[in-house]
Design goal:
The chain is an alpha+beta fold and 69 residues long. Strands 1-2-3 form a three-stranded antiparallel sheet, with no helix packed on it. The longest helix is centred in the N-terminal third of the chain and has 9 residues. It is elongated. The relative contact order is 0.24.
Length: 69
């Protein structure tokens, strides 16, 4: 599935890597404890991991307030 046009909301650095190397990616819901770098954020948020399928070390995390979405 081609998901290159659906990069809205992903950090610019991660977006550039996905486009530059023509990567495929997937998004998964992760617990707060697995969201690297988000330790000081509330556990009440919903956390997502955006990860390259070809290179799992290329990843980013995002959080949404579950009361707003």
């Amino acid at each position: 599935m081609d998901n290159k046009g659906q990069l809205k909301g992903i950090e610019e650095f991660t977006t550039r890597l996905i486009k530059r190397f023509d990567l495929r990616y997937y998004v998964s819901n992760v617990p707060h404890s697995k969201a690297e770098g988000w330790d000081d954020w509330s556990e009440d948020n919903v956390y997502f991991k955006i990860e390259s399928q070809e290179f799992p070390s290329i990843r980013s995390y995002s959080a949404n307030n579950k009361d707003v979405i």
